[in-house]
Amino acid sequence: MFDTLASQPNDPLLALIGLYNSDKRADKIDLGVGVYRDDQGRTPVLKAVKEAEKQLLATQESKSYVAPEGDRQFLDLLWHLVEGGQTGRFAAGVQTPGGSGALRLASDLLARAGARRLLLGVPTWPNHPGIFGATGLNVETYPFFDVPTQSIRFAGMIKALSGAQKGDAVLLHASCHNPTGAPLSAAQWDDLAAVIAERKLIPLIDSAYQGFGEGIEEDVYGLRKVLRAADEALVAVSCSKSFGIYRERTGAIFAVAGDARTAEIARSNLVTMARTSYSMPPDHGAAVVRTILSSEELRRVWMEELDSMRNRLNGLRRELSAALADSWQLAPQIDEQEGMFSLLPLDQADVLKLREEHGLYMPTSGRINIAGLKSADIGRVAEILKPLLR
Ligand code: LMR
């Protein structure tokens, strides 16, 4: 029977990891998949995580099941980090295998609840259309970012969303937009929230980089604003980046409503959909996050580490932007953008040429992972890019 199947291509973003690893050049540079790296190119385990793991090893007495929805204390602490008790809304969460697991459950829930459409900004994370298409949702798009001018297409976005209607869901990135890094201003978030309230849209907010943009609180300004405005919402949270626990597959999906009963009904559906898919989420990463967030000392250590990751990214943005400034007039935008990614105006041929001729790796979209830069490489990267950025 398997011979009736068509062979599937590798995921282009994940395939880049293998391509980079098999390149023998010593001066190759990896600006591909979105993981944080230090100036030596390593993705170290955070000190707060190591300490939490030590504590878990010493104190955990059972590996028995936790609960269908996962670890309630983890969910409460994570929700508090995201929402901060500031919206007056009721949320019911389910722990998931990473942010992708959260998005998949959100998609299943929207499909089951009969959402008319899910609107995705263009461009967005390439796995978004895949995840939402897989559950049969009717996926459509709205304009978000213009690559040649490196600017948010805010008027186009508002126009498209103003034409949406009750029953439509809209995907938003809480901060550190993937792939563009383009941040909405506070005033733009306010306008967006007003349209969501007026058109009765259901926001599905993808929050995967809290703390990597301007700060832990600053990065959820828009998210909180939108939650206050919406009747119902979904929030998909990833702990992969903020806690550096990528392979532990740790995240959560929160259903948000105006009353506890409605949020609980949504949770019961999320739980049953998880049960028929992977039954229950893995525990370890959530136990680590719970241990960090429930300890004043570990939380302090973690926040310092998050600050230093953010400061490094911001420093690299400044340096790259300065190094490109004499030949590319939009170079200052790199510094204005936030988080791990920027989307350069390169076409596929440019990207393949950079890969072949210079060992500079990025996806064919032209997205660069700023964290993949080392200070010492910035001059060379800028010189390689300059002839292509005009
Ligand atoms: C990325 O966009 O590079 C990351 O979110 C990793 C992934 O799973 O695609």
TrEMBL record:
Residues 299-326 form a coiled coil. The keyword Coiled coil applies. Pfam families: Aminotran_1_2 (PF00155). Its cofactor is pyridoxal 5'-phosphate. One of its GO terms (molecular function) is transaminase activity. Residues 27-384 form the Aminotransferase class I/classII large domain. Belongs to the class-I pyridoxal-phosphate-dependent aminotransferase family. Homodimer. This is Aspartate/tyrosine/aromatic aminotransferase.
